[in-house]
Request: fold
Amino acid sequence: MNKTATIYGINGPVIYLKGDTGFMMSEMVYVGKEKLVGEVISLDKDITTVQVYEETSGLKPGEIVEASGSPVSVTLAPGILNNIFDGIERPLEQIANVGGGAFITRGVSVDSLDRDKLWNTHITVAKGDYLHGGDIIAEVPETSAIVHKCMVPPDVEGEVICCASDGEYRIEDTLVTLRLSDGTEKQLNMIQHWPIRKARPTSYRFPASVPLITGQRILDTMFPIAKGGTAAIPGGFGTGKTMTQHQIAKWSDADIIIYIGCGERGNEMTQVLEEFSELVDPKSGNPLMDRTTLIANTSNMPVAAREASIYTGLTLAEYYRDMGYDVAIMADSTSRWAEALRELSGRLEEMPAEEGFPAYLASRLSAFYERAGMMHNLNGSDGSVTIIGAVSPQGGDFSEPVTQNTKRFVRCFWGLDKSLAYARHFPAIHWLTSYSEYLTDLAAWYHDNVSPKFVDYRNRIMALLNQESSLMEIVKLIGSDVLPDDQKLVLEIARVIRLGFLQQNAFHKDDTCVSLQKQYKMMEIILYLYKRCRELVAMNMPMSVLKEENIFERVISIKYDVPNDNLQLLDQYMADIDAFHDRIMEKNA
Amino acid sequence: MAIEYLGLSSINGPLIALEGVQDAFYDEIVDFVVNGKEHKMGRIVEVYEDKAIIQVFEGTENMSLNNTHTRLTGHPMEIGLSEEMLGRTFNGIGEPIDDLGPITIEEVRDVNGLPLNPVRREYPRNYIRTGISAIDGLTTLIRGQKLPIFSGNGLPHDQLAAQIVKQASLGGGTNEDFAIVFAAMGVKHDVADFFRRTFEESGVANHVAMFLNLANDPVVERLITPKVALTAAEYLAFEKNMHILVILTDMTSFAEAMREVSSSKGEIPSRKGYPGYLYSELATLYERAGIVEGVNGSVTQLPILTMPNDDITHPIPDLTGYITEGQIVLDRNLHGQAIYPPISVLPSLSRLMKDGIGKGYTREDHQDLANQLFSAYAKVGEARNLASVIGEDELSPIDKKYLEFGKAFEERYIGQGPNENRTIEETLDLGWELLRILPKEELDRVDTKILDVYYKG
Reply:
């Protein structure tokens, strides 16, 4: 029989229990008649404090709170992918079916995963095998894209004394029986439970060495992120945080995407759900939802569950990493999570630090981002968890605490800019405020896999953009007409880079996702154009003559004119630039 | 059977403490009788064992520690609902104030509502034609969207909202049930009157349910008003299959009321003294817009908020912008130039627009055209900055073209009459007409094929 206690006081999502309840920190509890889910957040001899993951209106002092005996955990087994959960891993589809209808009622008790579904299971161990934590005992094709590998829980090891044969099993059916070192027997099924606030163990961590390829030029070329890396996308509202996250979720070469909608719009989650069910993964040809799990805790759902949703998503990601997959987490938005912390901290009447955020904001953020990484797993496979967190700074001001603290713990910073968004330059990632510390780590990979010149080209493009920015200071004061022609050329080439390369149209079928090969070629063409133009300008050809030709516009529209499946067309541009050069020479010599 | 408690333990602003209560629950509504005659309503905001903290909606005037009888009602804040609400006027907690007697209640609902399950939402796609070019062309309103108007004191946001109400029609021209729920929070009498008159003049008064909490009405009541209105809207939309446009004005007063009550509760403030849960509170209101799968109705929200000191980074517009699906920003400079509606198009945005326009909805060129107008108008700003430094005469010919475009765009595209109702074709064609001021090679946001069809010299 589990421990119980009675409610003493209620203040929004925070409730107080009287007396020494004997509950544990972070233990999951069931609150009141409706058995609302909650978590113990502070213990005292006189008062136990619980945060409740559901709306508390209607609760009375004196109602019973029952402890569950375990920390807030997620259920890990086949059925997680192609599904949508709330912040504490309750499937929203089931809530709608059981709770009746379009609105989420309280105290709905549903299983996280379908316990009746039969999975086609292939057992990978045999009697007599000695298994350690993390070892794979069975493989289940979970979706068309992903084979789910059922593993021994990390803290269990023993000898197989009995195992089932291949066939169809439910997730609760026993697959393998182990004899543990103390002689007791343990039956293993497909299910593991794991507390959401505790990182799943691994053997060791690899340094970053492989990029997560997103098909977005400004990311892959200019500010790449490594598999197992961390990135923050800060930006005011309307600058395209969510759009960027959607693009990465759609096109990146991760095996699995965990999309956490934390305190964001309901319609956005519906959109992801609709769109990802229709879109097809370009690599495998399977629906994108087959590799995706959505955690939806929209802004109108209870605030405590919003705080938990980030950890729920992270734990699911680590579980798939343990199977040897590359997982990418989209957390949209970490600011909402930080605000949930602030809201709860305020309810607990804790001493506020900067801007009312609790003083432990930084340590919570670091604990979150440090769970990312490329890992060597307990079972010998390698997998990674990449975290890409959106940040919604108040007023678009990057000096606020969440952005600043996030900056300390991520290595990639994709700063979205309001003025770019106003001019509808998308993605509105500003090339001067953004950075990626992975660039040097990944240089070797680009050298070997794309071209030895890739990083050099990237740096030259970046240098041109920086030159443009300092020239623009002058232009703002005196206009561009007075600049010498070589500087006008820099401005023109920078314009080509901005419009033709950095800007990317997510709604264009060829431009929405671009291969590294095409990105590389595009840079090469732009730099070649720059080189040939510089030769002309050095011979005192004025820029006005150069601009009479439409070569700049042609290079800008390469992104639309060259389909991804016909990259040979790119070679023609070099010849065209030479022809342009010769024509100008002839006409003006 | 309900127990009545005589007397109170303490009164502090709108908050009352009552000790020795039994069976009180969080969020319960209580009924006070002051001096044996005056009725007041309150809500339990905190409970500790036998002590309840109660927020009084009508204000605590006349109450003393021993002249008040308190009765627990045993239910949270509820409102009686019926189709008869249309054409009627209510106070901020949903009681009729138009002397037409009570409504026949068909259903009673908790005003707090419940979160809409994302898997049962339908992604909004049908656009609403407002007849206003700057909105239809650049920040298209979609049915089921929440699109606030960010305004400032003295700007014509009320006229704009009224014009939208008068002219709003569904793009397809279908004749479905359409109604308006109007919630006033802390607005001036004149403003409420203006809306009432406009509704009557345009003949929609029978389709409007008005919930009024005026500037001198109790602050605590203001916190309930939008919830009451949205509960009514949800009922009409999802039970009675109507398309509801909800106007919430002024969200700033609502947030101010929250700050006032929060500080009298002694809560720890976060930004600018607003409580930490401002975002969650705003979100629970705004997220009540939407469409439910398989239901023929919808709730579209048009909240109006006045930005304190025209500051878009103030917590209220800032948090709103993070929740709503875009925003329409009004601009004092344009207003100064007598341009109506003074919509500042660059910071304005409709997030749902991209899926509700284009081929099959409006016209194939809509998205490209809008992108091009935005981008060209952004360049106008750059050219103007330059002109203010070096003088207009010194500008390059292309920059001069941009200045010309900017002026025409503001006067003819953004500017229009308060009764002018443009069709979507008129709006789009006007956009192309203005773009023709610029040379073709400047139009870098338009697909070449579309450019060839629509850019005719």
